[in-house]
Write a structure and sequence with these properties.
Radius of gyration: 15 Å
Number of strands: 7
Strand content: 35-45%
Shape: globular
Largest sheet: 6 strands, antiparallel, barrel
Strand order of the largest sheet: 1-2-3-6-5-4
């Protein structure tokens, strides 16, 4: 189970957070273009590569042209996650390290993420799994991100509270 920071001090990428991020949490990816115009897209899976440095591998829809175009090395990115079941939510901000072709491991991650995410929606909202799987099916590209700050975004009085120390 995920613990809220107010309940127990925790490192941003402790085991409970990694399990949350590796599951079927909703993933909203915020980017900006070179003129500063914002764009929001959806993620299709996330893997914490290095908990100490805050490096993550984010999978995004290859057909989301604005998101893919905005994910250039050095570009800022915000990843907002939320549990479908509990609304526990975390926003991570950082910078793109690289964008890479999806690997077989990434494809397996997308499949696991899609199953977890759509099952949570099905169980909480009753939507048909067949419809959800069609909606979630997409080609992906991988984006490596160095996260430098994280915030509790769970609805309520602690929303916006920084989690852990900013990474340098």
């Amino acid at each position: 189970p995920i613990r809220h920071r107010a309940e127990e001090e925790m490192d941003v990428f402790d085991q409970a957070m990694i399990e949350f991020l590796h599951g079927g949490c909703a993933l909203l990816v915020g980017t900006v273009d070179t003129t500063g115009k914002p764009h929001a897209g959806c993620g299709s899976g996330l893997t914490v590569l290095d908990p100490q440095t805050g490096r993550v591998r984010l999978l995004v829809n290859l057909d989301d042209a604005p998101t893919v175009a905005n994910l250039q090395p050095g570009a800022p990115v915000a990843i907002t996650t939320a549990s479908v079941r509990t609304l526990y939510s975390v926003q991570m901000k950082g910078h793109v390290v690289s964008v890479e072709e999806a690997t077989e491991t990434d494809e397996a991650k997308r499949e696991q993420y899609t199953a977890d995410f759509t099952n949570d929606i099905h169980e909480t909202d009753g939507d048909a799994l067949e419809m959800l799987h069609r909606w979630a099916a997409c080609r992906i590209v991988a984006c490596v991100v160095d996260v430098d700050s994280s915030f509790d975004q769970t609805p309520g009085p602690s929303a916006g509270t920084p989690m852990g120390a900013a990474r340098s």
